[in-house]
Amino acid sequence: MTAGRAGRAEHRAQLWLLAEESVDAEAARYAAALLGADERRRLERLRPPDGRRRFLGARLLCRTVLGELLGRPPAALRFVRGGLGRPELDPNPWGVRFSLSHTQGLIGCLVSGEGPCGLDVERAEAAGPAVRYGQRWLAPAERELLAGLDPVRRARAFTDLWVLKEAYTKALGLGFQHRFDGFRLGPDEHGRVVLEDPSVPPEAAARWRFALLSVPGGYRLAVAVRRDGAADGPWSAPRPRYLDPRTVVAGAGL
């Protein structure tokens, strides 16, 4: 995805990942220098070192990726926080949407010029305990599906449902305000994940595309993209790419 001549971004979504352990002291200093005033205030309120490194890693990732895609210096990008604290580009003549997600050890950034997008990243091994109490958040048909599986498959299926629901509600900008048991995500006859949401007209629900991905380290990722405007034709899930902070810092001449 690149910035087009008319100032709009081309449509194809991109997915970038950053290993949290790769954010060393030099990368953290570089990331801190990119922050705007609001981001610096948020950083100052974070006390645990891991939380600060994760925050800086997420800002390094999104500013680097967006700056490269849009042909702008990473430090020149400006953001506002939406109603639920979600960062958005401002101004945004390119029509670009992005979504950040992180879990222990991994940070992700999904960028799309097609429409709203959402990303969720989780450690698959963490699903075991969550299955016992998390099913109450699922739609009845989803709970019925899990009930018919053995414990191992049930844990995997729960993880998939959970990250898909997180990605979708993040794309909506609503998070848990959009009840997880009020909509359903599941495969159609072709194995493609489809959305059934009573709050969304069928023609609008049909514009959503979903993907599940696994990456090394035991992580499970879900991508949700709504294809608006002129976006049509075949859709394929973005292939994850890793950002190396050492390359970014070296390229900045630091």
TrEMBL record:
Single GO biological process annotation from the record: lysine biosynthetic process via aminoadipic acid
GO CC terms of this entry: cytosol
SUPFAM superfamilies in the record: 4'-phosphopantetheinyl transferase
UniProt xrefs under InterPro entries: 4-PPantetheinyl_Trfase_dom, 4-PPantetheinyl_Trfase_dom_sf, P-Pant_transferase_sf
A GO molecular function held by the record: magnesium ion binding
Domain of life: Bacteria
Any single Pfam family the record assigns to this protein: ACPS
Boundaries of every 4'-phosphopantetheinyl transferase domain copy: 116-224
The keyword Cytoplasm is assigned to this record: no
Keywords from the named record: Transferase
PANTHER family: L-AMINOADIPATE-SEMIALDEHYDE DEHYDROGENASE-PHOSPHOPANTETHEINYL TRANSFERASE, PHOSPHOPANTETHEINE TRANSFERASE
Family: Belongs to the P-Pant transferase superfamily. Gsp/Sfp/HetI/AcpT family.
Record protein name field: 4'-phosphopantetheinyl transferase
Species whose genome carries this gene: Streptomyces radiopugnans
